[in-house]
TrEMBL record:
The entry's keywords: ATP-binding, Kinase, Nucleotide-binding, Serine/threonine-protein kinase, Transferase
Domain Protein kinase: residue ranges: 131-401
Keyword Nucleotide-binding: yes
Origin species: Paramecium octaurelia
Protein name in UniProt: Protein kinase domain-containing protein
Signal peptide range: none
Amino acid sequence: MRQNSDSCFSFCSNRCNSLWINGYPTHMKNSQSISLHNVSLKNSQRKIIKFQNAIIQEKYLVVDDRYINLENLQLKRYNVKKAEGQISNIQYLNISNNLDSLEIFGPELQIDQIYNYLKLYTIQQQFEDNYQIIKILGKGSFAKVYKVKKIQVNLQLQDKQEYTYASKVFNKIKLRQNQEENELSLWKEIEIMRLMKNKHIIKLFEVFEDEKKIYLLLDFLQGRDLLSHIYNNNNVYDETLVLKLMHNVLNGLSYIHSQNIIHRDIKPENLILKQKNNIEDIILADFGLADFYNPNGDYLFKRCGSIGYIAPEMLNNEKYDYKVDVYSLGTVFFLLLTGQQAFEGQSSQEIFTKNQKGKVDFKLLDQTNISQAAKDLCMKMLKQNPLERISIDEALNHPWLQRRKQNLQVDSFKIIKKPTIVRGLKDIIRCNTPLWINKSLKSITDSSDNLDYLTFNVRDQTIQDFIDEEVQIQQRGSNNYDLEDDTIEEDKMPSYNVNRHFPLVKQKSFP
């Protein structure tokens, strides 16, 4: 049996190799498992598989003394009609790779439970049969994000429920322009997101694929990004709010690091409120540049992120570890405390140079009405030398964060909007969405041999395209979404309220 070779997952190792592996998986943790009771199994020859014990735990289906790695296998669900046309209570699941398949069947209740576990780790088809697109939320070079809804019908109870999600949709044609790198990047992003099970981190629910697109179903975050929320609340907030925010983000980041993962793209756009007007319910999003920590520095993309938020050791092409995320969060912390970015300049080159050298004007902290403890933590997070920089655990135990249960009586402070005039500024780079969809919309070459001649590698719209689009929007006199043309209110997005982010081009760490 051979699956369609057009799949972006066809060359994943467990799709190309034998479906079954002898032995027992060695990497399983003490996580929740599902027992396959009251169900039956059939192999690809339609023969019943007899077993004594069968469970699904993490990404593995274990049957007696052998197992299947479920990651990125194809999953189908179906039922069989009775002779009189009624739908049978028996439901079927089919798991397959390029060479073999397994069928699981049994009562609807048990199959529902198994399916709800399998769908996180596998790839399904027929997205449009399961979801309805409501509107576009954002777009980038490789993907668009849509608000979608799922209507789930229980045929036995004649009941239906409606759920809302965000769907990150990848264009497979664009992915194939640099197929090996882009597919490896996609696999890694999905693999990492499947591990994320923390209330302060964006959640992945399931993945679909058809001939043209790949669909990631994610949390729909009803609140806006962090900066937009502050602006919509008259820009005024106090230190207590910042303390709660930092505690929650640090907790989420601590969880990410406990999974041996570095995020590498922490910035205001990737901090989003799950619910409107509840800043304590903050979500860390976008794992497009995340990777598993490698002490040898071997990464798919070695130098990456948004200039102005990147740790200096990464820009200096040195080996780095989890503390790059501490530094990036420190730049966000600095912005919240001072109302200004840690690195500002009149050009991308100037911002790049300041970021590379870690030149932060800490005098700005002394000009704010904040506690000495908050200033101390911010400065320790922004230490240029990673050996002197505070760690996540040390930050969580810092005296300032230990005060989170107290009612701090401090003065309010605010971020001052600094709108940027785009017309005529050639160094502006659009960072066009807060919804985790774009790794480098317009990127800067990061060749260590050519840092004096930073050039744009336009992968989406040019500056002139942007200006033309803004003129068209003004002529239409409308700020509404145009779904047919997939245009969005990009001038309303948070990157227009602070100095521009400069995404750094991804550098391969392999030939």
